[in-house]
Design a protein that fits this description.
Layout lengths: L1 H18 L34 H4 L2 H17 L5
Length: about 80
């Protein structure tokens, strides 16, 4: 019984620690580009890259949500689609 309790506490601690871990975000852009002159944008229509995971690759709802989030963020900065 004690080993089950210890295992449960250990799993709980591992879950809490990994749940608090931050995501690593990377960005890439050309620092020489003058973005202040830009006011419009468009989505490039081309095949999306595949990850090999059908839950991600074939998920049109996920793609729509990403597009909507980016559209809202750019609109908040004054960009037009």
């Amino acid at each position: 019984m004690i080993s089950l309790f210890r295992s449960s506490v250990a799993m709980l601690l591992v879950t809490l620690v990994t749940g608090c871990a931050s995501l690593r975000v990377q960005t890439d852009y050309d620092p020489a580009t003058d973005f202040s002159a830009l006011r419009t944008y468009a989505w490039l229509e081309r095949p999306r890259p595949t990850t090999g995971n059908p839950a991600i690759d074939d998920n049109s709802l996920l793609v729509a949500r990403i597009h909507d989030a980016v559209d809202r963020a750019l609109a908040a900065r004054g960009y037009r689609r």
